# Entry
Amino acid sequence: MKIEKIKEIIENLEIENPSEEDIEAIEEAITLLDTGLIRVAELINEEWVVNEWVKNAILHYFVIKKLKKIETGEIEYLDKLEPKKNYEELKIRVVPPGVVRYGAFCEPGVVVMPGFVNIGAYVGSGTMVDTWATVGSCAQIGKDVHLSGGVGIGGVLEPPSAMPVIIEDGAFIGSRSIIVEGVKVEKGAVIGANVTLTASTPIIDVTSETPKEYKGVVPSNSVVIPGTRPKEFPSGEFQTPCALIIGKRKDSTNKKTSLNEALRTFGVDV
# Structure
């Protein structure tokens, strides 16, 4: 079935009573996701665009699939989706007990330590998903990204129109950082340890005399650390979380050198 036909069926689907053709279209859409032939979101003319029909295919897939026992050696699971298989053929390294779920796509050269990559996610070549890092449903991770230990990249599956979390090429995400609610981290940005970014988190550039505030996006090559700022409440003034842009990573051709310089220069914990 051609992609255009699959898209048409899913856009007009009544999931309460799916036909055999409907079920076939849903199954084929997830196979296309799993092989990287379609994506939940893609960069078009330098702008990220959500493919709502692909998200809907995932939601429909969970409806038509039934729970089943999944066994691996002596370990038993109960779920609707099995993990991805054929890692060697796909040229991705997955360290036990790391899991890439069926319906996620990793380009050749991805390394997944004991972490998790959920359905709908896309991970670019050369990226490291480090120990206990999670890539949530539909998140789009670029090439040569490092998700450090314990990083939480949130899933954004509903509503279908919502932008997933985007981590662009060459970004570095420090240990235990949390990035959710469709936040976009642009190319080459460095996120220090324990930074939490939601759609409403103030991201404040403090590198000049006048602060500049962003929400939902970290500009390219920014070096970001956790911060706080005062806010008045009925019971008094308290510190609320924010993120601080304290410098810029050099746009160097040697990405590793550029990263090391940024970490040393700005004293960023990672």
In short: The mean pLDDT is 94. The radius of gyration is 20 Å. The first helix runs from residue 3 to 11.
